[in-house]
Amino acid sequence: xxxxxxxxxxxxxxxxxxxxxxxxxxxxxxxxxxxxxxxxxxxxxxxxxxxxxxxxxxxxxxxxx
Length: 65
Description:
Layout: E1 2-5, E2 11-16, E3 21-26, E4 32-36, H1 38-46, H2 53-63
Antiparallel strand pairs: 1-2, 2-3, 3-4
């Protein structure tokens, strides 16, 4: 498992299985979502390797707890 904080420090991302799955957590609210397989690949592409944080916010709104 690898983990990192996005550039603005708004999200914590945990990568599982060398990018097979991601758990993304909003650091302030604690809300999170999980994607795997093709959805994980799509998230990485959509967010330009997790630099487009507005897209992470959209994913969180759609998939989050």
